[in-house]
Amino acid sequence: MENAAQRRILITTVPFGEVDRTPLELLEAAGIEYLINPLNRKLREEELAEMAGAFGVLIAGTEPITDRVMENAPHLQLISRVGIGLDSVDLLAAKRREIAVSYTPDAPAPAVAELTIGLMVSLLRHFSLSDRRLREGHWHRFMGRRLNKITVGVIGVGRIGRKVIRLLKPFGAKVLANDLAPNEAFRDEYGFEWAEKERIYREADLITFHLPLTKVTKHLVRTEQMMLMKPDAILINTARGGIIHELDLAKALEEKRIGGGAIDAFEEEPYNGPLSGFENALLTSHMGSMSEDCRARMELEATQEAIRFLKGETCIGTVPQTEYDVQSQGL
User: Fold this and answer.
1) What is the pTM of this model?
2) How far apart are CA 134 and CA 74, in angstroms?
3) Which of the following is catalytic: 126, 162, 240, 297?
């Protein structure tokens, strides 16, 4: 028999309902009690473990939802993830405990792709550096590069990688791409070339990563890979923190072995590390999905899924078995 706790929702991701209050209005109309993360920041594992015990559903962000958290949440039945990344959720523990997991994989893609293009142009044309110099009283006209004069490497051609390639086409950039499951029809439509990662590291002027964080992709790019790159190569990570080894990137920038980097997702957030000291490191605060429309859509879809679940209806954003396989195989 369902108890009161099973119908309570803990909304861990913040901000929530600020762009569009519709998700909260839907919960209120359905008579569902909810609590928005009172700490107003990303929760640590121990904080979530302490907080989650009285709730049946989590509308979750990127905080660690571990076996320990689930053990301390005896009423938990659903994790409704706002976004696409699942590295923060122990899917195998959830499966053992018969906790359903859903996500909103399509909603953030347009915003992340556009941020990626913005970071490319900013680094190539030195927008942020010029801004800092001007504010310091120095008028300097920086010489830059245009996208149609460089080779862009795209590693990971899923939902976001495909959108990045679509957005790059009007700029006329040469694109080399790498994916575990190459889509030949998409390649033919957009006129890029599939390539091994090592070739991309050697030939690309700018490399952007759009991969999930797994045991295989964690620290995928370290000093060894950066040594293959051009001395003016630029790296961009708007995917997950830890795909590019941050300390190795800082060392490469210090030794002028690569030209620059843009990082939106970090291993530890909020970030406070050595990359902050480099003018050619463009750092943003995990804001890839933070456009009004995409954020509103993510929150709405995750909330609708939670309501469906509590009504006993079929969920439509259920995480596919392939994601569980990735964790079970240690990939």
Assistant:
1) 0.93
2) 56
3) 240
Domain ranges of the chain: 4-106+291-328, 109-283
Q: Per CATH, which fold does 109-283 belong to?
A: Rossmann fold (3.40.50)
Residue 270: both structure tokens together: 């909020």
- Given a contact cutoff of 8 angstroms between Cβ atoms, the answer to whether 169 and 219 are in contact is no
> For the segment 190-249, what is each residue's pLDDT rounded down to a tens digit?
999 999 999 999 999 999 999 999 999 999 999 999 999 999 999 999 999 999 999 999
Catalytic residue among 126, 286, 295, 297: 286
Domains 4-106+291-328 and 109-283 share a fold: yes
Encode pLDDT of 297-314 as tens digits.
Answer: 999 999 999 999 999 999
The answer to whether domain 4-106+291-328 has CATH 3.40.50.720 is yes
Of 269, 279, 292, 313, catalytic = 269
Q: What per-residue confidence (pLDDT) applies to 192?
A: 98
CB burial class (10 A; 0-12, 13-18, 19+) of residue 61? buried
For the CA atoms of 264, 268, 274, 277, the dihedral, rounded to the nearest 10 degrees, stands at 40
Q: What percent of the chain has pLDDT over 70?
A: 99
> Does 240 participate in catalysis according to the annotation?
yes
What proportion of the chain, given as a percentage, has pLDDT over 90? 97
